[in-house]
Amino acid sequence: MGAPVAERRDLGRVQTPLILASTSPQRRAILEQLHVPFRVMAPAFDELPGTSPLERAVGKARSVDGGDAPVLGVDTEVLFGSELLGKPGNATEAESMLEALSGRTHEVVSGLCLRTEAWEELHTASTLVTFRVLTPRDLAAYVAAGEWEGRAGAYAIQGLGASLVERIEGDFLNVVGLPAALLVRLLADRFAGLYGFG
Questions:
Q1: Enclosing domain of residue 150
Q2: pLDDT of 15
Q3: For residues 6 and 17, what is the distance between their CA atoms, to the nearest angstrom?
Q4: Considering the domain boundaries, does residue 64 fall inside one?
Q5: What is the tens place of the pLDDT at every residue in 86-141?
Q6: Hey, which bits of 52-152 come out as E strands?
Q7: Using CA atoms, how far apart are residues 29 and 20, in angstroms rounded to an integer?
Q8: Catalytic residues
Q9: Does a structural domain hold residue 154?
Q10: How many domains does the chain have?
Q11: Domain of residue 53, CATH code
């Protein structure tokens, strides 16, 4: 079990912190942006090939003992048609991936599991992202910046990768790594007022 690394206070009172079953800095940043109090516990879960984002989110959430606190598991993948775009292994792979996405639309799909000892909420969220047409100079500059490293789909929309995007349809923060609109709705429904929603 991971040690608590983040907890927030709101209006002078300590709230029940959500347990985030993820070490993703992007997911931590989104929860901080939403002012949701949380603690991080690294999931003890092996991601198996061929599983869906929802299956992996459930596996992460179930691998963590949150005690009385709700546990949040999330997993996100990038789909281009029927092809799953993972993290490129090198700059050549990153450039090839971005070139394929140039001027076209791809889908970012997240699975989300919010659970307590009494219940589980299982959901998926999808966002469509359309890239502008990228020139060879655009591709070279982005790849040289190195932001593609460790990024599914070879870009980070919350950084310089925003310059590659023409439009999105759906939740922007889902592309960053956590479907915030979905999470807020679930917290408002299940814990009205506790986390500042509902």
A1: 9-190
A2: 62
A3: 9
A4: yes
A5: 999 999 999 999 999 999 999 999 999 999 999 999 999 999 999 999 999 999 99
A6: 71-80, 83-85, 105-115, 120-131
A7: 12
A8: 75
A9: yes
A10: 1
A11: 3.90.950.10
